[in-house]
Amino acid sequence: MIEQTTEEIIAKNRRSILERVRLAAEKSGRSADSVRIVAVVKFAPAEHVRILAKLGSTDFGENRPQNLQAKIESLADLNVSWHMIGHLQTNKIKMVYPYVKMIHAVDSIKLLEAINVFAERFPAIDPPRVCLQVNTSAEPNKHGPSPEEFLASADAIATPRKIPIVGLMTMAPLVAEGEAARPYFAKLREIRDTIETRTGLSLPELSMGMSGDFEAAIEEGATLVRIGSAFFEGLEPDQEA
Fold first, then answer.
1. What angle do CA 40, 57, 169 make, to 5 degrees?
2. Is residue 77 part of a domain?
3. Does residue 237 belong to any structural domain of this protein?
4. What pLDDT band is residue 241 in, cutting at 50, 70 and 90?
C-alpha cells in the first residue's frame, strides 16, 4: 500500500466535502455556489491551512481570538478571509474586529452593541458582517437566546447600526447528527423568516451545519457551513494537531 502524503489526504477529503455540498445543494434546488464552506482550523497547524488555501479554500474559521490572531499573523501572505466562529467576549473584540470578514456567534444585544461601538469608532475599517446566534436547541450550555427570547428582541435587533447584521447562526446538539440535527436548522430558518417579516431586515445568511450534519443544514437553507474535522480525517494524531 502506497502511503499518502498529508496534502493528498487533505485534498481527498476536500473533494469529498465539495461533492457532498454539491449534492445537498442540488437536493434542495440550489447550486453549490450558494453555500460557502468555512474551513474550521482551530486544531490545525498553519501548514494544513496553507495546504487548504493551495487547494482553493478561501474562508477559514477560528474559535478563539488568540488563536485567530496567531494564525492571521503566521499566514499573512495568504489571500484568504477569516471568520470568528466561537463565543466572543466584549473585551476581546479589538483582537478580532479589524481582521475578520464575519463574526458568526453574536449571542447577545450587549455584544452586538459593543461591536457597533468599534464600527463607529473606526469608520475607515470595513466592518465585519455579523450573524446573530440563536440557541435553537435550548441547551443551557450553549450561548445565545432561545427562539422565544430572540423573537421578543426583534425591535432591539432592528435598531439601525453601523455594523451590518447579515444573518443568523446556530449549532445543533452534539448528540444530534445528520437527520437528527435537521429540526434545529429548520427552526433557525423559520426564525429568520419571521424576523425579516417583523423588522424588514434582510438576513440572507444562515450559518449552520458542521462536519457531522452539514448536509441536513444545507437542505434546510444554510449558506455558510463550518466544517473542521472532515477536512482532516485519516491524518495521524501528530499530523492533526
1. 45
2. yes
3. no
4. very low
Q: Hey, is 120 helix, strand or coil?
A: helix
Whether residue 190 lies inside any domain: the answer is yes
- What pLDDT is recorded for position 46? 94
For residue 45, CA distances in Å to 35, 59, 68, 103 come to 25, 16, 12, 22
Report how many domains make up the chain: 1
Long-range pairs for 135-139: beta carbons < 8 A, 24 or more residues apart: 135/170, 136/170, 136/172, 136/184, 136/185, 136/187, 136/188, 136/191, 137/170, 137/171, 137/172, 137/173, 137/176, 137/184, 139/173
Tell me which residue of 147, 152, 128, 216 sits closest to 187, measured CA to CA: 147
Q: How are beta strands 36-40 and 165-169 bridged, if at all? A: unpaired
pLDDT band at 4 (very low <50, low <70, confident <90, very high): confident
- pTM score, whole prediction: 0.93
Structure confidence at residue 1 as a pLDDT band (50, 70, 90): very low
pLDDT, tens digit (0-9, with 9 covering 90-100), for 198-223? 999 999 999 999 999 999 999 999 99
Q: Give the amino acid at 230.
A: A
Grid coordinates 435537521 are at which residue? Answer: 182
Q: How far apart are CA 103 and CA 86, in angstroms?
A: 8
Give the CATH number, domain containing residue 219: 3.20.20.10
Range of the domain at 47: 6-232
Look up residue 130 and give its amino acid.
V
Q: How many residues does the chain have?
A: 241
> Within a domain: residue 145?
yes
